Amino acid sequence: MTRNTPSYTQPLKLYRTPLLTHPSKQSENISTLSAEKQEPFKTPVPSPYPGWSIENTKPLPYRAFRYGPKYNVTMGLRSIQPEEWIELDNQFPKYHAEKAARIAERGPKCVATHPDAYPAAMELLQELADYLPGRYPTLFKRTAVGIDNIWSGESFNIVETPLKEDPMAICARLVQDDLALMIEKPDGQYYLLAGAVLLAGFWRLSDKYGMSLADIHYSGDVPHFKEKLETGMMKFFKRLRCETFYTRNNYFIQVDDALAWSWSIGSEDEPTVSWATAEKDKPINNHWFRSERQSLRRLPKTGAVCFTIRTYFLPVTDMASEDYVPGRLASAVRSWDGHVSVYKGKEKYGNVLLDYLDKEHEKQVSSGLQLDKEDEVRKYPW
Q: What are the boundaries of the region Disordered (predicted)?
């Protein structure tokens, strides 16, 4: 892909609450969304995650695919409570180590903050420093100058300036998610102006940095974006309120075991990558299920829209041992239309994957699995 970064000759107008903006200046700094944004909002202190342990809390088993025959293209948003914003589990050490290595090795290719987004990046860092010790008190401790990671021994001073590194890099070290900040410019469009995209697998921050929300999706050839997603997505961004948090899920099949970058689609440093380079019909033990749990919220002081992107990653063979999963996943894959199939690389693995899933489903049915009871056992997105 060719990087398409617009010039930044005009400063952004960030959202301000009345507490941060002089009344006589509010009209200059608040966009058309101002009527919805003037009431101050403070993210509530979350209750501790019940029984959370860095040794024993397993990743949540998202299985965000539905039976066919129709594959519905929607934003798939669900509202969540603010305390559910960030999900951590016993894979934190692995993700933390891989992120640290990526920051050291690839730096600005994966982490960047445009000057116009720096206030939003600092706000996100402050939000995490306030949220994480409340939600995960055995892992994080709030300090007078920032936040400590009890497990790793890291201390982050977020008060002393300049910071030791990009604020988005610090944010990335605190969570298992990738992070992106969308900033509204005077043209009313939202632009990706800050991010820490370290474990995304199939896309690179350097390809998308500086792009508008629409161009991000067009450049990625997201199926049916224009006719089914664009209008609703733009309206959603305009109407998103600080106090309402959302989540959504997606899923992909990957034919290598690399969490950070799926090398099957090409080298991470090649200008263009695609499924064309992937080996076809690899044995099933090379098939991995990659699922993203994304959260979306508007930061209250700057008005930036924050994406968190948590990747869950496991072998298809592990997941297929779960009741109902192989049959439902096979049906979902068969429901992909031509555009979705190309986007997800089905031609490279579909035959092997579906043959395996069908056999696993048949085994479950032969063992007495009651198909009509599935809704009583597991519902979307599980």
A: 1-48
Alpha-carbon span 174 to 88, nearest angstrom: 10
At 367 the three-state DSSP class reads coil
Residues of the domain holding 92: 23-262+293-313
- Rounded (10°) CA dihedral 134, 135, 141, 144: -40
Residue 353 domain flag: no
Q: How many domains does the chain have?
A: 1
- C-alpha distances in angstroms, 217 versus 48, 64, 254? 36, 21, 20
254 lies in some domain = yes
- Which CA distances in Å does 132 have to 15, 126, 176, 263? 24, 10, 12, 33
List, for residues 25-40, the tens digit of each pLDDT value: 333 333 444 434 455 8
Sign, CA dihedral 234-237-238-244, equals positive
* pLDDT (tens digit per residue) in 184-243: 999 999 999 999 999 999 999 999 999 999 999 999 999 999 999 999 999 999 999 999
Reported for 8-14, long-range contacts at CB under 8 A and 24+ positions apart, including other chains, are 8/114, 8/115, 8/116, 10/185, 10/186, 11/116, 12/116, 12/117, 12/183, 12/184, 12/185, 12/186, 12/193, 13/184, 13/185, 13/186, 14/119, 14/120, 14/183, 14/184, 14/302, 14/303, 14/304
